[in-house]
Amino acid sequence: MVSATAAAPAIAADYVMSTSGTAWLTMAVQGAWYACQLPIGGVDLIASWRF
Fold this sequence. Notes:
flat; 84% helix; 51 residues
């Protein structure tokens, strides 16, 4: 089950995307948020997905 805290960045990112269209900034914010919360394996997964 996803907590409100975990969902908040995704919701905020969707809002930023829909209002300003700065996709790269949105991805950077999401990437930084999840990198701070996931173990090293999760960080590697994000890195492989983004690049």
